[in-house]
Amino acid sequence: MAQRLRIIPNLDREDARGAEGPLRPFPEPEKWHDHVELDANEWPKMIEKRYSLVPTTCFNCESACGLLAYVDKETGQVSKFEGNPHHPGSRGRNCAKGPATINQINDTERILHPMKRVGPRGEGGWERISWDDALDEISTKIRESLKTGAKDRVVYHVGRPGHEGYTNRVLKAWGVDGHNSHTTICSAGARTGYSLWQRHDRPSPDHANAKVILLTSSHLETGHYFNPHAQRILEGMMDGAKLVVIDPRLSNTAAMADHWLPTWPGSESALFLSWASMILERELFDKDFLENWVNWEEWMKADHPEEERDFERFIELLREEYSQYTPEFAATECKIPVEQVIEVGEIVANAGSRLATHVWRAAAIGNLGGWQVSRTLHLLNVLTGSVGTEGGTSPNSWSKYKPDLFDVPPDPDGWNELHFPPEYTLSHYEMSHILPHLIKDGRGSMDVYFTRVFNPVWTYPDGFSWIEMLQNEDSVGCHVALTPTWNETAFFADYVLPMGHASERHDVNSYATSSGKWVAFRQPVLREYARREGKEVEFTHEVNPGEVWEEDEFWNELSWRIDDGTMGIREHFMSPYREGERITIDEYYQYMFERIPGLSEAAEAEGTDPLGYMRKHGAFLIEEATYNKHQEEGWPTPSGKQELYSKSMEEFGYPEHSIPHYRVMSHVHPDNLQGDDEYCLLPNFRLPQHIHSRSANAKWLAEIAHRNPLWVHPRDAAKLGVSEGDLLKIETEIGWFVDKVWVTEGIKPGIVGCSHHIGRWRRKQDSGNRYMTNEVEIEDMGGGRMRMRTVSGVRPWESEDPDTNRVWWRDGGVHQNITHAVQPDPISGAHCWLQKVKISRPVDGESYGDVEVDTNKSFEYYKKWNEMAKDAERHPRGERRPLWMNRPLPPRKEHWFIRK
Ligand code: SF4
Description:
26% of the residues lie in helices and 17% in strands. The protein is an alpha/beta fold. Helix 4 packs parallel to helix 14 (371-384), helix 7 packs across helix 12 and helix 7 packs parallel to helix 14 (371-384).
């Protein structure tokens, strides 16, 4: 009928036949430079297109899945991205964000030239500047700062990492303790819990071989390692594994689960400890693992010195210790039926060595004491003996390749207290979310501040405090934004330097997305295509669009210019192959790849060298599986074992946490909420289609998801007297926002949810990301009060891409993050994302999308939380933090001690 109405072409006409011959498998890499397929746009005509398929990796989340860029041989441009079947992590599959890389590189609003601020910072005035001038000006500022001897005034703050040591090496060459990350708003809570057990601070669950997959939060579609984990969870389930999901929200993952436990946020540890108690009671623990690989004797010595060091007695004592965590207790804390606690507990307790568990962000980053969640979750792996086993949970570092670099400069000779303030002794990463508050508190300032693929004004809590810091030239002398696309933070920069997307840059990646160990090569696709075509390319920007650079070459050039010949920086950028000459990017990766175990042999078998192999395949499997490495390597903890008992906790002033317990009550525990009037806002869940802030220029993704309504349970909707689409005003500790209601049973009563990714904005004078940004006005109301109002939602516009004029959606959502107060956990340092909120109907003059924040209040609130971490006595032997604990870019050991 559709054919006859001519809604679709006539598929039955004579020339509309299928492809001839049998179905073909995906071509082998040997054929990738001359791949022929029919042009889908021409169908039903049989028009052949010739492509060169160039492997690279996705840059949209950390997983670094393999992509294959289809370079159209007629145009010499990339026409689409698909998965790379030879990538051991992703195995040819991608989530929606991978193929949407084509939107990002073809974004008509992307930044193509370096820009320099004109007028006051943040006012929105820009002019083009040459790379030469930008590099000269920035390198001069850095040189001046370094020549003062300061080690903490030049800072590199990274949003999306994924370059395996590249900039750490650069910062070391400059001699600064200048690495900052986004980890305290992301995974620092979970990392602390894991680190206390085993120093390795991330888990790597072997989902594909598990008997039970226990997930805290939504790992199938939006958790950590998105697609690589999702495909392995599904494999495990097809082999009979049970999927248990703990999440107050019915995520896509929870919807697929055998058991969904909608626990109250922050109560997860009570649940895990009740299951631990169950395992001990029923003697389902792995005696051999516990006896040989856990520091149970240290616990007995410290807490039960009068007892004989006997394993059987240890079990009795541990059973007593955890007997308080009954199923009834867990059910009360979690607000779920006790029957469910017992039923699922039995499944977990009987998983044996095939218990794959994971928590990354979610509960561990949501709550005061969130680090307890990963610590108690890992206790289940320890008790069942599923640590490092097939189907169990291994440390992620077993599966992560660490590259050998051609030159390793000395560790920084200083300690940056803006990143690691002395009171946060166990903070796992830099206290990046309170950087503006520490600066406002008079703790320091920065000369040159790089934000790299990083958008704290929008992504972080309390964005107005970030704006305040960035606009103050005494706080930040010079702000350089390295970014492929405009964002709310770049609006407040002095220089905006365009950097490449996934197919326009070099990086090496390795992540524990499976039980094996792999390495992948993100390469600039058109550079490799040019090489295949026999053309010489010296720098990647020669083939990138406009004047887009890749970061590797940027850092090399900048470092070279900083050094006036007296600073010893250039010596760290010399070729390992050509005496006295500057290193090239090809040489950098050649050196690294020549040292990857097994790669030279694999390359030789194909008649190429390691760099040639990686250019051709894009990835290499170093080890098939990495189980049970502790049997050779032990555990890198002070005791050499898994640490049930943490002496560091005791020494650094937290004796009540010497073993895993549930002793910190979340700030959103029901007892901390004022009756029925306060709700817990769950603001940190992701949508599967979006990255925090770099997908707003991907038209396909924006079309799929562009709103962030407030999830409200029908019971709460009735109480509040609202229905679908009504407006509600959500008041946080420091301000409020107005959002639309979505009534759904997919959220636990008493909790309201709002997804993290939407509510992007630009002011009248700003550019970019119009698929996802509302136009807003920001008003300084005086006395620290800031207001943002939506002037207009998303609108179509004319450009060379006809799709920009076809944008049909108008609602760009609400920027909720900016109304959140910072809540630094005193132990892990993690920002506790969950917010206590009051909910009411907006009054006259308050409209959808409105936001108001009191930055004075936010500073007071920061002070209140900061007080929790203050204790000058918590530095045994003068140590700033435990010497055994990881720190990114660690300075020389003498700086790990507080100088009196
Ligand atoms: S999971 Fe998706 S966004 Fe992440 S690397 Fe893979 S394809 Fe890209």
